[in-house]
């Protein structure tokens, strides 16, 4: 399972993103690209020291500034289901 496959299968799921600066973003993933740039919706941003909060309708996060991502378990299950469908749904050679 590749990281981008996991990320792309978790669209519409809640996601926590921590940046290298320590700022965190909690929101729902709209889309991502090959550079791991993210678009999030319904976002709550927390400052690195935890003293300030902002509510944003939508935000864009550059992939090179991401320290780590936290995905729900449901995202891993979605990828496993997609991999099963792809392995059984293809054309046979026999």
How many separate helices?
2
What is the strand tally? 5
Average pLDDT number: 87
Secondary-structure element series: HEEEEEH
N-to-C span? 27 Å
Alpha carbon gyration radius? 16 Å
**Unreliable residue stretches:** none
How does the helix and strand content classify structurally? alpha+beta
Helix content: 10-25%
Largest sheet: 5 strands, antiparallel
Coarse morphology: elongated
Trace the largest sheet across and list its strands. Answer: 4-3-2-1-5
Taken as a percent bin, the fraction of beta residues is: 35-45%
Brief description of this entry?
This protein is an alpha+beta fold. The chain contains 2 helices and 5 strands; from the N terminus they run αβββββα.
Q: What does this 3D model show about the protein?
A:
The structure is a single chain. The protein is of the alpha+beta class. The chain has two helices and five strands, in the order αβββββα. The protein has helices at residues 3-8, 73-89, and strands at 14-19, 24-32, 38-46, 53-61, 66-70. Strand 3 (38-46) and strand 4 form a beta hairpin. The radius of gyration is 16 Å and the shape is elongated. The protein starts with a helix and ends in a 5-residue tail after the last helix.
């Amino acid at each position: 399972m590749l990281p981008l496959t996991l990320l792309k299968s978790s669209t519409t799921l809640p996601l926590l993103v921590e940046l290298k600066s320590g700022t965190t973003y909690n929101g729902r993933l709209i889309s991502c690209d090959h550079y791991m740039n993210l678009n999030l919706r319904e976002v709550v941003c927390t400052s690195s020291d935890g003293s300030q909060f902002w509510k944003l309708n939508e935000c864009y996060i550059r992939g090179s500034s991401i320290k780590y991502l936290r995905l729900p378990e449901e995202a891993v299950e979605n990828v496993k289901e997609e991999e099963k469908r792809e392995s059984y749904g293809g054309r046979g050679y026999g």
